[in-house]
Prior knowledge:
extended
Amino acid sequence: MDRFVLFLGALGMLVIPFPLEVRLLGWRALSESALFAIFGLLCYEAIFSSWEKLPFTCSYLPGKQPAWMVALRLLGLLALLPVVNAILLACLYSWALFAGALLALLAVWARVHRARRQAWGEIRLRHDEAPDPAIASLHLLR
């Protein structure tokens, strides 16, 4: 699953926009892609750190979480975008900041990745054939 998600999904996110980035940023497109790739690996490790089901294949029941909590999470992410953008721009135009950010991201990724690999023996993949109790109560199956 790791190879599928990383090589087919994430690689496309780096390869497809790269010609446009080279046209707009010039040689800085390489450093931008490197930062984006390491940050993407870190996000991947965070999402897959402890899972019993694959995060994008398990069913999501809309009524389990209040809509205001989902909206609040989305607003929090949107509020962080200008901060991340400012950090990225600062790193692209300063080699010292770029090297520091790249090394910090690599160190954090290596630690999280190692912890996830060590926990593989303890975390079991859960595969349920039975529908969720909320769905079963609808009596849709005959």
